[in-house]
Design a protein that fits this description.
- There is one protein chain.
- The protein is α/β, with parallel strands linked by helices.
- A seven-stranded mixed beta sheet has the order 1-7-6-5-4-2-3, sandwiched between helices. Strands 8-10-9 form a three-stranded antiparallel beta sheet, with helices on one face.
- A hairpin with a 3-residue loop joins strand 9 and strand 10.
- The longest helix is centred in the last third of the chain and has 27 residues.
- The radius of gyration is 21 Å and the shape is globular.
- The structure holds pyridoxal-5'-phosphate.
- Pyridoxal-5'-phosphate binds next to helix 4.
Length: about 375
Amino acid sequence: MSDNAPPPVQIRADVLATPAYRQGAAPTKAGFKLSSNENPFPPLPGVLEAIAERSEVNRYAAAAMPELRAQIGAEFGVPGDHVHLAAGSVAILYQLVHAAAGAGDEYLYAWPSFEAYPALGLASGAVPVAVPLTATAEHDLDAMAAAITERTRVILLCTPNNPTGPALRRTEFDRFMARVPADTLVVLDEAYREFVTEPDAVRGEDVLAAHPNLVVLRTFSKAYGLAALRIGYGVGDPAIFRAAASVSIPLSVTGIAESAARAALAPEARAVLSERIAVLAERRDRLAAALRELGVAVPEAQGNFVWIPERATGGVPDALALAADFAAEGTLVRPFAGSGVRISVGEEESLTVIIDIVRGHLAQLGGAA
Ligand SMILES: *Cc1c(COP(=O)(O)O)cnc(C)c1O
C-alpha cells in the first residue's frame, strides 16, 4: 500500500492533516547517527545486569515504583509522591497538556523547539501557540509573556532549547514566572540539564519550591543513555500528577526500565555518568568552536547537540541541502526545513567528519557562510 493511501475507516480530518512523528531514516552507508541526541557510550555499569535480573516478564510491574520515585525525589529535596514516572518524558508532556488544556484552550511554547510540542494538543483540541525564538535562538520570554491570554493553560519552556542549544538564565526565568498567572501550569523541560555548563542557567531543583504551578521534566533517555527503555519523570505538585495519571495510559513504564533507572542512579554508575557528561560537554564546545571558525553562527550550545542556523541568522542557505550532504556521507543529522540543522554530539571520530562536510558544503557555495 502506498504511503499516502487514505485509511479504510473514518478518521478525524484534523488528525489526517497532521503528519506523524518521523524518526530519522537509517543511513545508506556506514557513518554516524547524529540525528536523535542519543548517548554514544555503552550502558552505565550495572544497567545490563539489572535488566537481566528482571526476568519475570510474564508479570505486570507494580506501577507505583516507590523506591525509584523516592530516589529521584531525594535529588530535588522532595518526597517520592512529588515524582511522576512515564514511558519517556514526552509521555508526561502529553499527559499534562491533555489534563490542563481542553478544546479551544491554548498552550504556549517557543519555536523552533522540541518537535513533539506542536502535536501535543491535537487529540484534545487544545490550540498550540508558538512564539518565535530571538535572533540568537533563545526563548523570547517577553514575547511569550505577552502571548499569555485567559485561555492559556500550559506554558512549555525547553532548557537548553532543543534544537538550538541556549539555556534559560535563572534571572530571566524568575522575571518570566512573575508575569505568569499563579494557576497556569508551567513545564520546565530539562531533557538535557545534565549537559549544562553555564553557571547562570536555571535549574529545576532551585526553583521548584517557589512555584507550585511548576513541573520539571527530566529523562533517562539522553545523558543516562537509556533511550531504548523509555523512561522519564516529572517533579512537582502531587495533585498535578494525579490529574496527569487520570489521562495516562496505565502500566506504560516497564519493570525493566525501572530496574535500569535505579541501577543508573546508583553511586558507581553516577561516577561514570559524570565523567561521560564532562567528555560530551567538552566535545560539544570543541565542535561548536570549530564550526564558528568556519564562519557559522552556532548559538550557545548547552545540550549534547549543536545548531547550524540558516543564513538569515548566520548560517547556511538551506538546511535540507546541508543534511543531504551529510546523508551522502552516511551520517544522519536532523534538518528543520527553513530554520537550521541540529547535529548531536556523538563519537569523538564524528567531529572531523562533521567539520569536513560543513567545510565542503560552504566551499561549494562559494566560501561564504
Ligand atoms: C528527548 C527529549 C524529551 C524526552 O525524551 P523521552 O525519551 O521521551 O524521555 C523531552 N523533551 C525534549 C526537549 C527532548 O529533546
